[in-house]
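Sequence design from tokenized structure. All designs in this work follow the same two-part layout: the structure record, then the generated sequence. An example of the structure record is given first.
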């Protein structure tokens, strides 16, 4: 990708890659913690280092089904006497005897005195005599005690996002409860007299409020605690009260609409009176109007009213802010190179995130095509897409066959 530029064909607009570090400077990670049960920890952020209190594995065990024996007892293929069995949870209780072997299952303890396991397929049973093909070396097919980690080893660090594997690791070392960063609290609402609830009748000039549902879905995928305050009319006192209610308990307040040029100025007016606000005009399409500031102790993010603009600015700007609030490292987008299958029209001046469909052709080459019309009000362009086609700030019309940068949607948008 090309280097961000401070100036472009649209005076006063800042490249989003330059704006993001400035936005992140205004956000402080949460420090409040809470204790949760292991079963409730998925998607939470660990607030403490965790060390194992046990060796892992806690005992020598078999890596497969077969027979355990002492390597020195079997210099060549021969028969050993079956002494008993060792199953997971039901270890062999007898004693080692020279020339003896033990039937053993995967994960079962290797009895004292035995040091090697041969897989069942390389053995033959004839009553209590087991003919075994010798392993190549002592210790074959045995998982040694502490092989993965020793007691006292730090297993997970504070700041780790807990996924399915991390839950399994904690269960393996016996962690039943843990301290995590409390969930980020988000309050959001839409503004606009033209917005109507889904399911109601539309009068002339009215539309359904789709943005709140998109934002709700994005926030749910982001692992935060959210409160939907509904649609607020274009009325100064109603907007003022909504901001006060939202900021009283939330870490972040998100609005949709009211920050574009030409819209009612009530949102900007109330923000100036009730908080500290910085309006960022970004060289990004869709999503040029974006606002960031503070209302009381809460961070404020004002998303554009156009549905696609709202989703794009959330993904590129708000999601990184949420990562910092949770104490997580900044997400690194996966960027791929693909061949454009049809021409794209573009005016230089803004970074464009066109919605695309990424696929692999018969030759195994990645190729991408736009989903169709790319208007910022066409939410179906997001529903049909599986990636963004990123067209750089000073890039113009782009012909078919051009190699372009694509960013596959991650778990927040999928």
């Amino acid at each position: 990708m090309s280097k961000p530029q401070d100036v472009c064909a649209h005076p006063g607009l800042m490249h989003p890659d330059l704006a993001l570090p400035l936005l992140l400077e205004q956000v402080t990670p949460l420090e409040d913690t809470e204790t949760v049960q292991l079963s409730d920890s998925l998607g939470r952020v660990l607030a403490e280092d965790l060390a194992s209190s046990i060796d892992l594995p806690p005992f020598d065990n078999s890596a497969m089904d077969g027979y355990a024996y002492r390597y020195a007892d079997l210099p060549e293929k021969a028969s050993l006497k079956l002494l008993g069995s060792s199953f997971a949870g039901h270890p062999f209780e007898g004693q080692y005897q020279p020339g003896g072997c033990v039937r053993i299952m995967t994960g079962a303890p290797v009895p004292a005195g035995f040091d090697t396991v041969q897989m069942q397929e390389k053995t033959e049973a004839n009553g209590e005599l087991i003919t075994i093909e010798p392993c190549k070396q002592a210790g074959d097919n045995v998982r040694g005690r502490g092989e993965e980690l020793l007691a006292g080893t730090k297993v997970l660090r504070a700041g780790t996002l807990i996924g399915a594997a991390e839950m399994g690791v904690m269960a393996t070392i016996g962690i039943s409860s843990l301290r995590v960063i409390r969930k980020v609290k988000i309050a959001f609402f839409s503004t606009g007299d033209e917005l109507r609830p889904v399911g109601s009748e539309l009068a002339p000039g009215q539309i359904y409020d789709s943005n709140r549902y998109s934002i709700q879905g994005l926030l749910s995928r982001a692992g935060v605690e959210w409160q939907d305050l509904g649609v607020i009319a274009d009325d100064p006192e109603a907007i003022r009260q909504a901001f006060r209610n939202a900021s009283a308990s939330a870490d972040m307040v998100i609005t949709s609409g009211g920050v574009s040029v030409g819209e009612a100025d009530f949102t900007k007016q109330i923000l100036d009176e009730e908080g500290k606000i910085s309006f960022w005009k970004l060289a990004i399409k869709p999503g040029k109007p974006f606002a960031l500031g503070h209302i009381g102790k809460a961070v404020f993010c004002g998303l554009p009213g156009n549905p696609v603009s709202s989703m794009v600015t959330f993904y590129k700007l708000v999601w990184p802010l949420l990562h910092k609030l949770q104490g997580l490292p900044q997400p690194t987008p996966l960027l791929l190179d693909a061949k454009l299958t049809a021409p794209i029209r573009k005016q230089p001046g803004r970074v464009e995130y066109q919605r695309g469909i990424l696929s692999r052709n018969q030759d195994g080459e990645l190729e991408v095509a736009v989903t169709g019309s790319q208007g910022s009000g066409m939410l179906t362009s997001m529903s049909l897409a599986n990636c963004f086609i990123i067209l750089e700030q000073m890039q113009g019309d782009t012909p078919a066959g051009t190699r372009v940068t694509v960013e596959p949607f991650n778990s927040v948008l999928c």
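The first helix runs from residue 16 to 24. We note this feature because it recurs in several other targets discussed in the main text.
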